[in-house]
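Quick one, T. Sequence first:
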Amino acid sequence: MNDELKYLIGRTVQGKHSRRAFLGRAGALGVSAAMANTLLAGAARAQEPKKGGLIRMGMQGGESTNTLDPALAASEVPFAVNMTWGEMLTDVDPHGNLDMRIAE
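Structure tokens:
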């Protein structure tokens, strides 16, 4: 069984098996899911980041008029999304004074 696990780990690290396929086959060999994850984590290498792609955010209260333009953000959802990507130019402190953030 040890040789079969090493073979499966090698194929998964090379990208010939998905993690899901590895866990399924390791489970068929009688290895628990926790043990299989531990084996795979020891052999895993960090992947290079890929440029581009999509990010999907599930947020309640979105509207069809939402925009990513910070000047036109009129509700909670675009405001929250814009705050995720960067910092505001200014902010208002608890005393009502203008607090400079990026704008100096």
